[in-house]
Amino acid sequence: MPTQLPLPDALVSMADHHLAQWRAAAEQAGLVDTLSQLDDRLLTELRLVLSGSDYVAEQLRRHPQLLFTLRAKGDLERVLEPGELAARLADMLSAITSEDELGKALRQFRQYHQVRIIWRDLVRHASTMQTTRDLSDMADACIDQAYQWLYRQGCVSMGTPTSHDGVAQHMVVLGMGKLGAQELNLSSDIDLIFAYPEGGETQGGRRSLSNQEFFIRVGQKLIKALDAPTVDGFVFRVDMRLRPYGDSGALVFSFDALEQYYQDQGRDWERYAMIKARVVAGDQTAGAELLSMLRPFVYRRYLDFAAIEALRSLKLMIRREVQRKGLQDNVKLGSGGIREIEFIGQAFQLIHGGRDRSLQQRPILPVLDMLAAHSYLPDEAVDQLKGAYLFLRDVEHALQAVDDRQTQMLPTDAQTQARVAYVMGFRDWQDFRETLETHRGHVARHFAGVIADPDEDEGEEAVPYEEWLPLWEGTLDPEQALEQLSEAGFANPDEAWRQLSGLLASPQVKAMQRLGRERLDVFMPRLLGLAAEQSDPDLALERVLPLVEAVARRSAYLLLLNENPSALRELLTLCCASPWIAEQITRYPVVLDELLNAGRLYRPPETDELVDELRQQLMRIPEDDLEQQMEALRYFRRAHVLRVAASEIAGTLPLMKVSDYLTWMAEAILQQVLQLAWREMTQRHGFPRRANGSICDLDFVIVGYGKVGGIELGHGSDLDLVFIHDGDPDAETDGARPIEGSKFYTRLGQRIIHILNTQTTSGALYDVDMRLRPSGESGLLVSSLASFARYQREGAWTWEHQALVRARVLVGCKRLGHRFNELRAEVLSRPRDESALRLEVAGMRKKMRDNLATQSTHAGFDPAAFTAESPFDLKQDAGGIVDIEFMVQYAVLAWSCRYPELLRYTDNIRILDGLRDAGLIAGEDVQRLQEAYKAYRAAAHRLALQKQPGKVSGDQFHDFRRGVITLWQQWLTEQ
């Protein structure tokens, strides 16, 4: 029950009147004995329903036995099972023989269930969305069952419509609007579009008809069966105006004709409408194909800020319609009404839905949930919108329940006001109106904020762009332009003017279409105004203009920045701070989306969030669409690399965390890449086998070496990988196209590398280096664990065991990963002759210095050579990163036989902690090495973001270099 409030006096007499009429009708129908069996609860509910719905009262008066049937079947209490409505209607229609009987049966079916649904809604046995779903299921059943009956009759009288290949065809009925979203109200129209797969002719009839003519006739009969008013009323009012060309268009279109129309002539409001399209009747399989064909029209592949202008026009039209038609008291169309909530959700769907597939949904409440989950709207705003939506839909149902009339206008007469207020659980109309206006106020405020014109946003400081219009439009002579640039803070106005003139004369700008050029003409004055606010306007302009030139033919990106001044500010800030970031955004402008949410931009997610976010993005892509999966992986990496770099520049992310995030991201990507490649291989060839004949379930691991193994990835680092399996190389897979296990795993490795290395429009995922596998480039791409173990025990060089210190399993089979760790521990902890080991490690390091260092080996050890004229290679020169790494690797190889805890970690910092804790290295020496290592890596990161090589002036880091060299000479004096 919705309320424990007593029935108001104004409604008592109405309820008693309706109740007396029903009792009289029941007695006249001979139902006296049944009347005496009514329980108090049912009578209480009956009085409430009769006070709220004249329609139910009329149906019970005309059909007094209806209430007893509803009670006997339990239909007033329970939620119907999925498919139950369709099954009941099919049962009713099984014996009918004429279209008149069809129409009568459909109307009787609707009357019964309309009473059931209104009853359950008014007494709150059903939630708001259960009511809308129930109504939508009833509509689906009526449309589909009527169509199926008419189709069968049409095939008998006109022949069966077939394709050119002779395959029988069915019509597809698309439900639009509230029907498509399964959100019908009690008196909704149903918006339909009819389609059929392809041209052809009927077969088996007296004369041949085209498929279109056949389906037009069936469609006309279907509309009549549902819409025509008879003595039994109607089923649903049918609106066909959303079809191509509206009332002047054909009633039914082929799939090709629909696709061509939307591709060539589809308008933005039709995209807006098509968001909710759903197959409600006819051929579901063909209908799914049709919706797939139309999806690119609705959801553009990337961020669709081009839709903003159309949405803004639609929003203005909504406001004007409210004022012109006096719709303020309309809970759907008035300010703060249902339509505004739906507009908010669908605006985000049109703009972001092409890339964010979580927004590709029909019902509004799940869409709003996604807006909160993905930070498009604050949680508080979404909570307010959802609360308002449910309240307003309940009000809508209360209004329409009165007499089954399509209205959303608030009543003006006292009696109906009392009915609505009581049904909604309020003591009086005033209390109800106060709550209603609170909800509508929330909605109106959020509606005003959606796609607001940035120049009208009072909360946003005005962008000083108007003063730059004459310069960009060319109405200033060069001297005036140079003077304006100079006064605005440009240190080299001649160069700035040359760059701007070069952009105007570039082929990309000259080839722009009218709309794109208009967007550029809005953007450039904004850019100049904001660039002048930067500490180095020349640098800002120099680094952003290549992006402008790159996106000139894809001007939606310019629109994105025009619509979001804060995003343009972030762009300038980041590009000024790092040419590497500027280059990345220029090469992959799709990541501009990340600038829209500064809070998210400077807060990279934790590892679990990374894994979950990527998994969810890939889940929304069809399993067989490898191209989209590869693009999604690349966007994921580009976006998160930008977030990490931005956080590093802003100082919100320290060096160690930067490497952590970049490494976690690589692991999350590799996990998905392995799953994609494994699924593709097993679908094609079946599963490989183990030596005992059992089926392998991903007995495969990807081992990371070097920086990824040591959790020390930097910007632009490649991945040193080794692939290991534990299957039987000779046994064949168990699929329809079996291959030997060795070939299966080799091809699996090749697919992984293909997904990682392939250059798409979004570039490659990672550069992969496989040279650390057994026998290097001459070895097998994928090794079995047995052969890998044999090589490590018998054939590996000392430098390969050094590399194994930093090796760890990144992704794959946990059981195999555990065995790899056992093997690694066994190989590394083998007792070694320390003198011989020292010579080998020092000798390998000397070869590296001779080939890669900027200074000779002996000069590199002389602190007197540390001058500004002799640059210091942070990685390769004496006292640098590699010296520290070699000392750590020597220590693990020399001492882990006695101190196995040294094998626990693969990163240098924690291995050094272990050496200190074991008493093998003095605490102050460990601290010196760790501080030097962090300082070098931080400098290397900064240089990478500045697109500079990893070298600094030779007069830097003297103390660190001396300390590292001193320890090197103590441990690894070269003989």
Automatic annotation (TrEMBL):
Keywords in alphabetical order: ATP-binding, Ligase, Magnesium, Multifunctional enzyme, Nucleotide-binding, Nucleotidyltransferase, Transferase
Family affiliation: Belongs to the GlnE family.
Gene Ontology cellular component list: cytosol
Record EC number: 2.7.7.89, 2.7.7.42
Origin superkingdom: Bacteria
Region (Adenylyl transferase): 464-975
Residue ranges occupied by any PII-uridylyltransferase/Glutamine-synthetase adenylyltransferase domain in the UniProt entry: 313-450, 858-947
Region Adenylyl removase: start-end pairs: 1-455
Organism of origin: Halopseudomonas xinjiangensis
Pfam families xref list: GlnD_UR_UTase (PF08335), GlnE (PF03710)
Reactions it catalyzes: [glutamine synthetase]-O(4)-(5'-adenylyl)-L-tyrosine + phosphate = [glutamine synthetase]-L-tyrosine + ADP; [glutamine synthetase]-L-tyrosine + ATP = [glutamine synthetase]-O(4)-(5'-adenylyl)-L-tyrosine + diphosphate
Protein's name according to its UniProt entry: Bifunctional glutamine synthetase adenylyltransferase/adenylyl-removing enzyme
